[in-house]
Amino acid sequence: MRNLRIGVLVSGGGSNLQAIIDAIEVKKLKSQIVCVISNKKDAYALERAKIHGIEGIHINPKEEAYDDRLLAILKDKKVDLVVLAGYLRIIPIAMIEAFPDRIINIHPSLLPKYGGQGYYGIHVHRAVIQAGDKESGATVHYVDGGIDTGEIILQKSIPVYQEDTPETLQQRVLNEVEHNILVEAIQVMESKVTNC
Ligand code: GRF
Predict the structure, then answer these.
(1) Could you count the other beta carbons within 10 Å of the beta carbon of residue 176?
(2) Ligand 1 center–CA 173 separation, angstroms
(3) How far is residue 67's CA from residue 95's CA, in Å, rounded to a whole number?
(4) Would you give the end-to-end CA distance of the chain in angstroms?
(5) Which residue of 32, 45, 173, 195 is 20 to 30 Å from 82, comparing CA positions?
(6) Residue 178 main-chain phi, psi, to 5 deg
(7) Are 104 and 84 in contact (CB under 8 A)?
(8) pLDDT tens for residues 7-45?
(9) Chain segment 142-193, per-residue pLDDT in tens
Protein backbone atom coordinates (compact mmCIF):
# COMPACT_ATOMS: atom_id res chain seq x y z
CA MET A 1 0.00 0.00 0.00
CA ARG A 2 1.33 3.39 -0.85
CA ASN A 3 0.16 6.98 -0.70
CA LEU A 4 0.31 8.11 -4.28
CA ARG A 5 0.85 11.63 -5.48
CA ILE A 6 -1.86 12.01 -8.09
CA GLY A 7 -2.00 14.49 -10.96
CA VAL A 8 -5.50 14.76 -12.42
CA LEU A 9 -5.94 15.98 -16.00
CA VAL A 10 -9.32 17.46 -16.90
CA SER A 11 -11.15 19.37 -19.61
CA GLY A 12 -14.65 19.81 -18.22
CA GLY A 13 -17.00 19.70 -15.29
CA GLY A 14 -14.85 17.49 -13.11
CA SER A 15 -17.46 15.29 -11.43
CA ASN A 16 -14.96 12.42 -11.59
CA LEU A 17 -12.34 14.68 -10.01
CA GLN A 18 -14.88 15.43 -7.29
CA ALA A 19 -15.39 11.70 -6.69
CA ILE A 20 -11.63 11.34 -6.07
CA ILE A 21 -11.54 14.38 -3.78
CA ASP A 22 -14.50 13.02 -1.79
CA ALA A 23 -12.94 9.56 -1.49
CA ILE A 24 -9.71 11.09 -0.16
CA GLU A 25 -11.66 13.20 2.34
CA VAL A 26 -13.47 10.16 3.76
CA LYS A 27 -10.19 8.21 3.70
CA LYS A 28 -11.37 5.66 1.15
CA LEU A 29 -8.17 6.60 -0.67
CA LYS A 30 -4.81 7.13 0.96
CA SER A 31 -3.46 9.14 -1.94
CA GLN A 32 -3.35 12.89 -2.39
CA ILE A 33 -4.03 15.05 -5.40
CA VAL A 34 -1.02 17.29 -5.94
CA CYS A 35 -2.31 19.14 -9.00
CA VAL A 36 -5.22 19.43 -11.37
CA ILE A 37 -4.27 20.43 -14.89
CA SER A 38 -6.71 21.60 -17.54
CA ASN A 39 -6.39 22.46 -21.21
CA LYS A 40 -9.58 24.54 -20.86
CA LYS A 41 -9.43 27.76 -18.90
CA ASP A 42 -13.11 27.73 -17.92
CA ALA A 43 -13.28 24.06 -16.90
CA TYR A 44 -15.38 23.86 -13.74
CA ALA A 45 -12.97 21.17 -12.57
CA LEU A 46 -10.46 23.96 -11.85
CA GLU A 47 -13.01 25.64 -9.60
CA ARG A 48 -13.54 22.35 -7.74
CA ALA A 49 -9.79 22.11 -7.20
CA LYS A 50 -9.67 25.66 -5.84
CA ILE A 51 -12.56 25.02 -3.44
CA HIS A 52 -10.62 22.11 -1.98
CA GLY A 53 -7.29 23.89 -1.76
CA ILE A 54 -5.72 21.90 -4.59
CA GLU A 55 -3.46 23.63 -7.07
CA GLY A 56 -5.22 24.05 -10.40
CA ILE A 57 -3.20 24.87 -13.50
CA HIS A 58 -4.43 25.87 -16.93
CA ILE A 59 -2.14 25.28 -19.88
CA ASN A 60 -3.25 26.97 -23.08
CA PRO A 61 -2.53 24.61 -25.99
CA LYS A 62 -2.49 27.56 -28.39
CA GLU A 63 0.07 29.61 -26.54
CA GLU A 64 2.48 27.17 -25.01
CA ALA A 65 4.53 24.10 -25.85
CA TYR A 66 1.68 22.24 -24.23
CA ASP A 67 3.03 18.72 -23.91
CA ASP A 68 6.46 19.83 -22.69
CA ARG A 69 4.93 22.07 -20.04
CA LEU A 70 2.51 19.35 -18.95
CA LEU A 71 5.28 16.80 -18.52
CA ALA A 72 7.50 19.32 -16.72
CA ILE A 73 4.74 20.11 -14.20
CA LEU A 74 3.98 16.44 -13.52
CA LYS A 75 7.66 15.75 -12.93
CA ASP A 76 8.13 18.88 -10.83
CA LYS A 77 5.19 17.84 -8.61
CA LYS A 78 6.68 14.35 -8.32
CA VAL A 79 3.47 12.77 -9.56
CA ASP A 80 3.27 8.96 -9.21
CA LEU A 81 -0.06 8.44 -10.93
CA VAL A 82 -1.72 10.45 -13.69
CA VAL A 83 -5.51 10.20 -13.80
CA LEU A 84 -7.33 11.34 -16.93
CA ALA A 85 -10.76 12.39 -15.69
CA GLY A 86 -12.67 13.75 -18.64
CA TYR A 87 -9.51 14.91 -20.38
CA LEU A 88 -10.05 15.50 -24.07
CA ARG A 89 -6.53 15.45 -25.47
CA ILE A 90 -4.29 12.71 -26.80
CA ILE A 91 -1.46 11.73 -24.47
CA PRO A 92 1.90 11.98 -26.28
CA ILE A 93 4.27 9.01 -26.34
CA ALA A 94 6.89 10.92 -24.31
CA MET A 95 4.46 11.10 -21.43
CA ILE A 96 3.52 7.43 -21.66
CA GLU A 97 7.22 6.59 -21.55
CA ALA A 98 7.75 8.89 -18.58
CA PHE A 99 4.88 7.25 -16.65
CA PRO A 100 4.82 3.58 -17.68
CA ASP A 101 1.60 1.94 -16.41
CA ARG A 102 1.02 5.04 -14.31
CA ILE A 103 -1.54 6.79 -16.50
CA ILE A 104 -5.17 5.70 -16.24
CA ASN A 105 -8.27 6.92 -18.04
CA ILE A 106 -11.99 6.67 -17.40
CA HIS A 107 -14.16 6.09 -20.45
CA PRO A 108 -17.98 6.04 -20.41
CA SER A 109 -18.57 2.80 -22.31
CA LEU A 110 -17.95 -0.91 -22.05
CA LEU A 111 -14.68 -0.90 -23.97
CA PRO A 112 -13.77 -2.08 -26.54
CA LYS A 113 -17.24 -0.97 -27.60
CA TYR A 114 -17.60 2.72 -28.41
CA GLY A 115 -13.97 3.64 -27.92
CA GLY A 116 -11.56 5.53 -30.16
CA GLN A 117 -11.74 8.64 -32.32
CA GLY A 118 -15.02 10.52 -32.01
CA TYR A 119 -16.34 8.50 -29.07
CA TYR A 120 -16.35 10.96 -26.22
CA GLY A 121 -18.98 12.60 -24.02
CA ILE A 122 -22.56 12.43 -25.23
CA HIS A 123 -21.50 10.84 -28.57
CA VAL A 124 -20.80 7.59 -26.75
CA HIS A 125 -24.22 7.43 -25.16
CA ARG A 126 -25.97 8.43 -28.39
CA ALA A 127 -24.26 5.52 -30.16
CA VAL A 128 -25.30 3.09 -27.42
CA ILE A 129 -28.97 4.17 -27.66
CA GLN A 130 -28.92 4.14 -31.46
CA ALA A 131 -27.52 0.62 -31.49
CA GLY A 132 -30.30 -0.51 -29.12
CA ASP A 133 -27.82 -1.96 -26.62
CA LYS A 134 -29.37 -3.42 -23.51
CA GLU A 135 -26.47 -2.47 -21.28
CA SER A 136 -23.80 0.16 -21.05
CA GLY A 137 -21.29 1.23 -18.42
CA ALA A 138 -17.80 2.54 -18.01
CA THR A 139 -14.22 1.35 -18.08
CA VAL A 140 -11.01 2.40 -16.37
CA HIS A 141 -7.95 1.42 -18.36
CA TYR A 142 -4.24 2.06 -18.63
CA VAL A 143 -3.29 4.57 -21.27
CA ASP A 144 -1.12 3.28 -24.10
CA GLY A 145 -0.28 4.79 -27.48
CA GLY A 146 -3.82 4.36 -28.86
CA ILE A 147 -7.16 5.95 -28.07
CA ASP A 148 -9.07 3.99 -25.40
CA THR A 149 -7.05 0.87 -26.20
CA GLY A 150 -4.98 0.21 -23.08
CA GLU A 151 -5.34 -2.75 -20.76
CA ILE A 152 -8.58 -2.69 -18.78
CA ILE A 153 -8.32 -2.26 -15.01
CA LEU A 154 -12.02 -2.22 -14.11
CA GLN A 155 -15.32 -2.23 -15.92
CA LYS A 156 -18.90 -2.17 -14.69
CA SER A 157 -22.20 -2.31 -16.52
CA ILE A 158 -25.71 -1.03 -15.90
CA PRO A 159 -28.91 -1.70 -17.85
CA VAL A 160 -30.05 0.68 -20.57
CA TYR A 161 -33.76 1.40 -20.11
CA GLN A 162 -36.16 1.78 -23.00
CA GLU A 163 -36.96 5.32 -21.88
CA ASP A 164 -33.29 6.35 -21.64
CA THR A 165 -32.09 9.29 -23.72
CA PRO A 166 -28.37 9.89 -24.34
CA GLU A 167 -28.53 12.50 -21.57
CA THR A 168 -30.20 10.29 -18.94
CA LEU A 169 -27.86 7.44 -19.78
CA GLN A 170 -24.86 9.76 -19.50
CA GLN A 171 -25.95 10.87 -16.04
CA ARG A 172 -26.60 7.33 -14.81
CA VAL A 173 -23.29 6.06 -16.15
CA LEU A 174 -21.52 8.95 -14.42
CA ASN A 175 -23.31 8.64 -11.08
CA GLU A 176 -23.78 4.89 -10.84
CA VAL A 177 -20.59 3.67 -12.49
CA GLU A 178 -17.83 6.17 -13.27
CA HIS A 179 -17.54 7.82 -9.89
CA ASN A 180 -17.30 4.42 -8.19
CA ILE A 181 -14.98 2.54 -10.51
CA LEU A 182 -12.56 5.44 -10.83
CA VAL A 183 -12.06 5.44 -7.07
CA GLU A 184 -11.82 1.62 -7.03
CA ALA A 185 -9.23 1.70 -9.81
CA ILE A 186 -7.12 4.17 -7.83
CA GLN A 187 -7.36 1.77 -4.87
CA VAL A 188 -6.02 -0.92 -7.20
CA MET A 189 -3.16 1.39 -8.17
CA GLU A 190 -2.45 2.18 -4.53
CA SER A 191 -1.90 -1.50 -3.89
CA LYS A 192 0.09 -2.04 -7.09
CA VAL A 193 2.46 0.86 -7.35
CA THR A 194 5.34 0.18 -5.02
CA ASN A 195 8.54 1.50 -6.46
CA CYS A 196 8.02 5.13 -7.35
C1 GRF B 1 -16.92 11.39 -18.27
O2 GRF B 1 -18.01 10.75 -18.85
C3 GRF B 1 -15.65 10.66 -18.61
O4 GRF B 1 -15.79 9.28 -18.69
C5 GRF B 1 -15.36 11.20 -19.95
O6 GRF B 1 -15.70 12.57 -19.87
C7 GRF B 1 -16.70 12.75 -18.88
C8 GRF B 1 -16.17 13.75 -17.90
O9 GRF B 1 -17.03 14.04 -16.87
N10 GRF B 1 -14.03 10.86 -20.37
P11 GRF B 1 -16.54 14.93 -15.64
O12 GRF B 1 -15.80 16.14 -16.20
O13 GRF B 1 -15.66 14.10 -14.77
O14 GRF B 1 -17.81 15.35 -14.95
Answers:
(1) 14
(2) 10
(3) 8
(4) 12
(5) 173
(6) -55, -50
(7) yes
(8) 999 999 999 999 999 999 999 999 999 999 999 999 999
(9) 999 999 999 999 999 999 999 999 999 999 999 999 999 999 999 999 998 7
